[in-house]
Amino acid sequence: MTSSLVQHPGPGCIVEFMQGNQPMVGFVAGEKSGRMHVFTQTGRETLVPAARLLPWSGPVYEGVTTRSGMEDAVRRHAELRNSLEAGVDALVLWELAQGEVDAAGAEWFAELTAQEPDVDTVAAVGRALLGRKTHFKFQPPSFAIYSAEEVERRMGEAERQRVAEQLVTAGRDFVKTLWNLPAGQTPPRLGDDATENRLRQILLARIRDPEDRESEAVWRELRKGLPENPHLALLIARKWGLVPPHYNYLLDQAGFAWGDGWADEHAAETARQAEAVAALSEPDAADADYVSIDSATTRDIDDAFSIRRAPGGIRLSVALACPALAWEFGGELDRAVRDRATSIYLPEGAAYMMPEALATDIYSLVAKKVRPALVAEFLLAENGAVLEKDIRFAPVRLSANVTYEAAEEAIAEDAEETGRYGLAHAVARALRERRIERGAVVIQRPEPEISLTEEKNDVQVEVAEKKETPGSQLLVSEFMILANEAAALWAREKGIALLHRTQDVALPRELAGIWSEPLDIFRTVKQMGPSLLEAAPKPHRALGLEAYAPSTSPLRRYPDLINSAQIHAFLTRGQALWDAEELAAMLPRLTARLEAASQVQRFRPRYWKLLHVKQTPKKFWHAVAVEECGNLINFSVPELQIFVRAPKDLCGEKFIAGQPCMLRFGKADPLSNEIRVAEALAE
Length: 683
Hints:
Layout: E1 14-19, E2 22-32, E3 35-40, E4 45-49, H1 67-86, H2 90-97, E5 103-105, H3 106-110, H4 119-130, E6 136-139, E7 142-145, H5 148-179, H6 193-208, H7 213-222, H8 232-240, H9 249-254, H10 267-278, E8 290-294, E9 303-310, E10 313-321, H11 332-340, E11 344-346, E12 349-351, H12 356-362, E13 370-380, E14 386-403, H13 404-413, H14 420-437, E15 441-443, E16 448-455, E17 458-465, H15 470-494, E18 500-502, E19 513-515, H16 518-527, E20 532-534, H17 558-573, H18 580-615, E21 620-629, E22 632-637, E23 642-647, E24 660-669, E25 674-682
Parallel strand pairs: 8-14, 15-19
Antiparallel strand pairs: 1-2, 2-3, 3-4, 5-7, 6-7, 9-10, 10-13, 11-12, 13-14, 16-17, 18-20, 21-22, 21-24, 22-23, 24-25
Helix pairs in contact: 1-4, 5-6, 5-7, 6-7, 6-8, 13-15, 14-15
């Protein structure tokens, strides 16, 4: 027997090759055309190409030709190499090789463990190196040595892979069990806390982003055998009790934290701003007689007005909350608020853009409290024409916070339009008429009021038409439109950059007017393009305005906060904070965040509406046919303010635009946003 490494193995040589990711010892019984006839340690005979042999062949047994002889030789070397391999510390070899060489053969590494290593020692070292794929890369006949940084990366990846495989093994049957779990039955335990926590994180990640790439591979294995459903993770999380039955996953997908817990870490900054507001001086008498009009549940009050007749016309002052007083742009609180971008108002409650303490108290225009404000002042003609306008900063105090219902009653009682509310309503009507003359499109539709009641571990939904307060709502909307237009025009005159809401498209002249019928509203809205948020003043055609810079809701919307800050900085320091180019650079991210939040604002109320439909399966709903879409007819359902489509054969032979119908819905799935018409009756 010769014991040194053999470069060109032939008959009688001990060799190794990889079989099923494991080194296999064999005895070469013959050779033909570069292929070795090898007798293996498992007692089988196989043909192995010379290229597959590992680079530690040997020793050579001359004259051994019997099966028992070959079997004995293979067994002895396999046992010896297994024993030697157990004593090899590949990590020590990696540390010794660091900085010495970039790559080396198994024999070089074996010499680090013994002065004259024999072939079995070399093979044992080679096997150990093969088992450490995080530290070495086998590039026959050498092993490349990974750097410390690469080793750290690969070890992290290997650990993640190990954890993922463990989770799949333990979690696949558990996920199926949850999916098939009857309602009301307590879910089982998965096993250890660590595995349960990992599965929780996977489910939450898939709820947050159904296309989450990091969890995709594991999730694909976990959900094998389950139906395809974009909300599968949410449904399983519900069964597990990880989220409540009507969990608002839209908030997760928008990256918007519900409630006020997010503001806790900004308590010190909130207190600092409270001190700045508390240090304001007492307002002048003229700035102490404002009233606000809002819904009874509104706590973030950001606008109010004062109005009186004066020489030369009507004096109107609109006070707007001014959180820019002590706002630190670029600070941690500002970055958090900018990321939220807007307040969200849902049937289940409100989530404010700012910390609740700032939005509903410190900067809110609460009656009898001194608050910072931007005051837009106007001298108006009887027909609503603006004769004079200006904007100033001042502390103000409201005399009252009034509800829409109370203001509506006050308007009705002031038929001669001599009091505050009657005069304000008359001015609002005149302002709207002037806008319509300039092409404004006014949409008036009933607003459903959604109320939620918890019953027997579920939620009962009621949808009712909100009590109409057209006079007071007109008053508020027209004064806000006037103030936002004034901000845009005033800023343009002063050379101040603001963010503008624009709609610079050509609208047919016949669209101008007030539209309230479902068919008219559908046809009108279909012809109107979307509005844009831009850093340059342009017309807003649907409002009938030359320019419109949203500034009246700085507690609720970040673009309004930016505009408020621009105006405040100019009035108090003589220079705005940003130029138009800097504002334009903010728009991509700001627009994306506003759109993400708007998805929640649009679709969450629809979820509750569809749940109400599901809970009232026998009810017939008044609907109006508004459009023919191939074999379908599109209906407006005014009571719900939604559109639904129904097969034409359910609705009669002929489509008649504006035809009233009664619809009964057969299926309503709030989660998948699916609703189907089961029956249609012509009225």
